[in-house]
Amino acid sequence: MAEDLIVTRTLVIPAAELSERFSRSSGPGGQGVNTADSRVELSFDLADSPSVPPWLRSRMLGRLENRLVNGVLTVTAGENRAQLQNRAAARERLARILRDAAAAPPPVRRPTKPTRGSKERRIAEKKRRARTKDGRRGGGWD
Question: What InterPro entries does its record include (predicted)?
Fold first, then answer.
């Protein structure tokens, strides 16, 4: 499964930049639990990757700073019993993380003043609520 990892239409990570490590998964697995290396660790060196443009790399490094170890992003998948399924899950997880980190920042919100209509609606709702609560004030419960 040495294929390039497609993150977005414009960002493709070559297979040569990904490294996979296999180990034994924890949990139940029957007779093959001690022999099958089905857990997958997929690593990508984001800090030194030539396939990520510098302007995008700085954005991704900033957003992923808590997940990186020396500039390397590592994803683990071990929920399936088959190594092939875990490899596919790890690749999808890595692509999703990189896609989210590469997303454009939201547009800057320019604060505006409330409109006259919204102010009037707010005051009308406050008065309606006050009348409701006023009706609850009854006589004395002595």
Answer: Pep_chain_release_fac_I
The per-residue pLDDT for range 40-86, each reduced to its tens digit, is 999 999 999 999 999 999 999 999 999 989 999 999 998 888 889 99
For residue 59, give the nearest of 100, 89, 16 by alpha carbon. Answer: 100
Its sign, for the CA torsion 48, 50, 51, 57, is positive
Domains in the chain with CATH codes: 5-102 (3.30.160.20)
Distances from the Cα of 8 to the Cα of 5, 15, 26, angstroms:
9, 15, 33
pTM, 2 dp:
0.70
pLDDT band at 8 (very low <50, low <70, confident <90, very high): confident
How far is the C-alpha of 64 from the C-alpha of 85, rounded, in Å? 25
First-last CA distance in the chain:
82
